[in-house]
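Hey, quick one: can you model this chain's 3D structure?
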Amino acid sequence: MLDGRVLFDVRLDLPPGWTCLLGPSGAGKSTILRLLAGLPTGTRFDGRVTAPPRVAWMAQDDLLQPRLSVLGNVLLGQRLAGTAPDAPRARALLDTVGLDGMADRRPDSLSGGQRQRVALARALMEDAPLALLDEPFSALDAGTRRRMQDLARERLAGRAVLLVTHDPSEALRLGDHVHLLAEGRLEPMPLPPAAPPRALTSPGLAAAHEALMTRLAA
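Sure thing. Here's the predicted structure for all 218 residues.
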């Protein structure tokens, strides 16, 4: 509850694969992510959350530590967990997200899209069974966004992923399950038959997109 108002009354199960969550601003999408991550929400919660003790978390803001290098930020989760930092793996991941040669730079020298890719690399470094991604590709140009979507699908295969997005096309391309959160209710949306990541020409994608846009505009 927030200011005496019930934000949502939902049950959400997260099987292995990508569950994508869409809905209008203020519907409670990011609040659900924060509840699963065990973070403060600014609301009163009456219910039960069952989640693994460790999750991979990527917030809307990149939350990069300004005093750490790019490499230091990617390794931050391991350091906080008390595990030995795997610098070679982190450097290889930075190369994969297109940030080769930038490991020693500071966050304030990066563009918004570069910062978001550092945050994505940091999330992908985590070996947690649950990944919580809050608009992880929003600062990227179209070509880079597609490459990072495919990379995330590959690296997070076999895990449960909850992706919050405002982009219906992104949800339909990546999602094994797509839900619309609106007016405190969770509604599953129909998906094309092809397995994700789906091509824009996949049979049924245009119809699924139209159905989703119709619900979002209602």
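One thing worth noting: The mean pLDDT is 90.
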